[in-house]
Write a structure and sequence with these properties.
By secondary structure, the chain is of the alpha+beta class. It contains eleven helices and 17 strands. The chain has a six-stranded mixed beta barrel. It has a six-stranded antiparallel sheet with strand order 11-12-10-15-14-13. A hairpin with a 2-residue loop joins strand 6 and strand 7. The protein is globular, with a radius of gyration of 28 Å.
Amino acid sequence: LAHVVLPAAGWAEKDGTVTNSERRISRQRAFRAAPGQARPDWWMFAEVARRMGWGDAFAWRGPAGIFREHAALSAFENDGARVFDLGGLADIDDAAYDALAPLQWPVPRHGSPGPRLFGCGGFPTPAGRARMLALSPRMAASAGDFPLTLNTGRTRDQWHTMTRTGRVARLMAHAGVPTLTLHPQDAAACAATHGALVRVESRHGALVTRAAIDDSVRPGDVFATMHWTDQFSSSGPIDRLVHALTDPAAGQPDLKGTPVRVSAVTEYWRGTLLRLDGDDPALGPSAWWAKAPLENGYSFELAGWIALAEEIHAEGKLRKLLQIPADAELLTYSDPRKAIFRYAGIVRGRLAACLFLGPPGADLTGIVLARPLLGRELPAAERVTLLAGVSVTGAAPAGRMVCACFSVSEDRIIAAIRDNGLDSPARIGAALKAGTNCGSCLPEINRLIGAQAPSVVS
């Protein structure tokens, strides 16, 4: 809704300080120049203020001056009443600011409580004691037409709305599509099956997404991740379904207790589209899609709950979906009796797009073999095998990614458990490196060990 958008410097182009979750303040120095007319945020505020006639109040010449004002304000009329206090840094000069070593707040003018802020007990209240508030629950009860409770949250490898992590192919290899996780008991009640489409509705909206059946959620609860947006899936943001209840004292939104109902959606077809372009496939309101980046393009998972119209097989429609020009070569394979259709677009001898379509349950895994070929020159022998879904080299496609840090697939971990008797995350880490970096895949490695336990014992 802005009338003017000022180009701001990115984090790699900024000079200042950053404070982490253990209260440690560190100097951050730009390691690249801001492009074009991009400027630091503080400079924009100062220039707007100056042109409004308030230049004296915003007369900073750099981040050191802003830091001094920030530190002085933290100590203003404080006298120990507020925990955050940088009064000891209010008079720091530019040279000392540039050489500032990492340190933890508070940094009062006199004395310091040390790195453990509450190491001796107590709370930041006048009496030093915690204030407890007795509240009456305000969550809407799950009943009647909305018998399930929607819980939203995070998943490993993703951050917020995926504006950064959603562009990294390795981070999308573990969970490339949004899902609604249900307990097996609730899935059976609504006839949902693992990997199939379901419709989830609340009083505030509805969307279609894939189902994941997992007994790690409680009966009566369903879980959806909050990361996917319209840019990455037709499901869109799950928070469109979330109610507007907030905590009466803190204002915290209730993102964990929205009443919903779930119903199975009958799929008529499924598909996978590989394309150099990441634009919305524009399949219409009766289809679902989810996008994930590849190293050399994009992958789209597709499904529809209305029979695939004949017109989609028309050359003009296909070229639009594949994003190839009219003079591009179009390779086709069709088996109308089995409702299986495969297409590839060749532009100047290179594979620009590939599309596999079939009924639910059809084997579409062959398109995985086309992923490394996307954007590359396609020799005659590989054109013959491409739409057949077989590898000209005989190589099998890699399985689902478990460890994003070291690109270790589920198949490799299962093989290590079965063939080598590796029965602990430590042993698997020593052999494959999986789980030895960030550790976010360790719970999944444990589950794989548990699932293979009988074969390991035998």
